[in-house]
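Let us walk through a complete example step by step. Step one is to write down the protein sequence. Step two is to encode the small molecule, zinc ion, as a SMILES string so that its atoms and bonds are unambiguous. Step three, shown after the inputs, is the structure prediction itself.
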Amino acid sequence: MKQKKLRTLSHLLLPLMLFSGSANADGPRVVADIAPIHSLVSMVMDGVGQPQLLVPQNISPHHYSMRPSEAEALQEAQLVVYVGHDMSPWLEPVLETLAASASALDLSKVDNIMQLAYREGPIFDGHDEEGHDDHDEEGHDDHDEEGHDDHAHHDHDGVDPHMWLDPMNAKLWLYAIASELTRIDPKNADRYDENARSSSRTITLAMAQAEGHLASGKDNGFLVYHDAYQYFEKRFNRVAVGSISLGDASKPSAKRLSELKALFGAQGISCVLTEPQYSSKIVDSVFGGFKPTIGVVDPIGIDLELGTTLYPQLLENIALSIAQCVNP
Ligand SMILES: [Zn+2]
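Step three: the predicted structure of the complex.
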């Protein structure tokens, strides 16, 4: 699917709105790309101001094109925090045009975060992969940075962009966000630092909750709708058997579906996790005959209240979704 990103620029001729929706006019004007990142930024800005969300919560960032109001938010921004090129290839060119005066924090470039290459086939052979647990950075350095700017979907030779689903990444990002905020708003430096520390502890607690949910379950196999969860799976040691769609949430091919069907029959998978943004029709029609438990898992938090609590809730919810689906 081609993105109409450049065409949206024409909407800039519309009158500009001020940074509406920001509860605290004194805080720095910050925009975050997706809800979980918005939540992390909210945690760090707590008591100072609120960031704006760029991609509406109910829209998959994989199939997103920017609307005029979002372009306006970018124009007013002092800082744009985003999860990286591979999630939002449309964003960087837009940033150069619209937010030329803003600082941009590309979270995929933060030191020491875990980055994983895409998984390819519909079936994950997670067990013979090298251990990624200790922040293995190999396998993406040769990632071609050029040449896919005009692709609306991810480059599948690249890094899997769903990096926020590793809470250890999120913790590192809290400090990166705090230090960017401090740069543009030094008078609140202590506040940002303190918020980053306390939010890191909050995430640690949410991780323990998530582990608790997952520990209660048997190790039954599950299939996910789109390949978004490997960061979560690796961190919590609960690896999906495969995914129906690729990491960019594109439509699966007939070949992919028939491979999955064969796998289903052979491995006795008991659970398929769909997502709120995507129709479960395909699951019913392809796998219905196997009578799996069909659950819903949400990598973005579309039903959660935006803000500081979204991220820790998201972690817990994903763990619960998996646990309840594999142990109905
Ligand atoms: Zn995704």
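Step four is interpretation. The chain has two domains: 5-208, 218-326.
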